[in-house]
């Protein structure tokens, strides 16, 4: 029986075990059926088809769709690829779709798909040694939205990936920044430059150009509701499923008390996310936590209903001009799409 009613995310303090984290390392719902065949390369940007072809070769063959799954045929061997591929491009050009297509197409016995933050959270939960042993011998590790915002995470992921590549694991990653530029403008990267460059040497960088598909048919602004319309939408959603209803400031404050790896559990079971009295963010740490939260909301394909300031305006100009600009712009893209769904 489907749960219904209104819940407050500020009252949720989810816990998640290491085993549950591992079980969750699969493509998010919106990409659970992503294939190379369903990736629509934009003819105006040849790099999209080039990336698709390279990734088909990296995955070990071609693909032909059959119902909800697929079967494989060996493709002609192309040039020898590095053990890792790194998809670099802007927002909404299909990087995550292609990453999920690699995951589904590679006929691997053991393969994992997760965001950068999920992998670092797993290290925190299980310990570095146990995490290495968990992934050792795996065929494929997919890492979505590679981040190096924290020096400690930089060192941990560098060591982890180096050990896995040494044991034969293939790596596929996405980011909005080329590998050699990771960390640039975010923290004092000089101490980690050698590690960053060593990690980049394991990857073949694949550039994907294009327009953000989420903005191709919209004006770029998130939808704002009047309070009465908001109340009506939340009530309608609560009649057939679970709808959340929280003051924006209260939710932002609550996110500071929950580890980002658990944000996915905060929205568990929801059919819509409601945010009242949205206002511009003033603290960078709070803004980055909100970005991580929106990533989970977007991956879960949850619509957002909001009042107050338009959600595409929550990151002030001084934030957009800083080192996290690309991350904020990605969040804006996802916020606009979520309020229009």
UniProtKB/TrEMBL annotation:
Any one Gene Ontology BP term: cell division
Coiled-coil zones: none
KW Cell division (keyword) present: yes
Keywords from the UniProt entry: ATP-binding, Cell cycle, Cell division, Nucleotide-binding
Domain of life: Bacteria
Transmembrane segments: none
Keyword ATP-binding: yes
A Pfam cross-reference name: AFG1_ATPase
NCBIfam families: ZapE
Protein name: Cell division protein ZapE
Lineage summary: Bacteria, Bacillati, Actinomycetota, Actinomycetes, Micrococcales
């Amino acid at each position: 029986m489907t749960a219904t009613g209104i819940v407050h995310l500020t009252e949720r303090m989810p816990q998640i075990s290491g085993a549950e984290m591992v079980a969750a390392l699969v493509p998010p719902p919106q990409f659970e059926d992503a294939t190379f065949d369903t990736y629509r390369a934009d003819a105006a940007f040849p790099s999209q088809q080039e990336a698709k072809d390279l990734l088909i070769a990296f995955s070990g063959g071609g693909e032909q769709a059959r119902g909800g799954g697929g079967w494989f045929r060996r493709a002609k061997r192309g040039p020898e690829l590095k053990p890792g591929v790194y998809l670099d491009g802007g927002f909404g050009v299909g990087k995550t779709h292609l990453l999920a297509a690699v995951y589904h197409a590679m006929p691997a016995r053991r393969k994992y798909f997760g965001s950068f933050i999920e992998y670092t959270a797993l290290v925190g939960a299980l310990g570095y040694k146990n995490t290495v042993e968990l992934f050792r011998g795996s065929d494929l590790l997919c890492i979505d939205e590679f981040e190096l915002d924290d020096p400690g995470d930089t060192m941990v992921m560098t060591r982890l990936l180096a050990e896995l590549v040494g044991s034969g694991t293939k790596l596929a990653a996405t980011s909005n920044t080329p590998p050699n530029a990771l960390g640039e403008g975010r923290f004092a990267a000089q101490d980690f430059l050698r590690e960053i460059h060593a990690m980049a040497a394991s990857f073949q960088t694949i550039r994907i150009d294009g327009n953000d598909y989420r903005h191709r048919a919209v004006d770029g602004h998130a939808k704002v509701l009047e309070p009465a319309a908001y109340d009506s939408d939340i009530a309608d959603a609560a009649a057939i499923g679970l709808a959340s209803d929280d003051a924006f400031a209260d939710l932002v404050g609550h996110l500071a008390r929950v580890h980002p790896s658990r944000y996915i559990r905060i929205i568990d079971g929801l059919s819509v996310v409601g945010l009242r009295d949205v206002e511009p963010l003033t603290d960078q740490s709070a803004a980055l936590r909100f970005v991580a939260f929106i990533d989970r909301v977007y991956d879960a394909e949850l619509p957002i209903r909001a009042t107050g300031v338009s959600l595409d305006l929550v990151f002030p100009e001084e934030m957009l001009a800083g080192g996290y600009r690309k991350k904020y712009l990605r969040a804006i893209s996802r916020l606009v799409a979520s309020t229009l769904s």
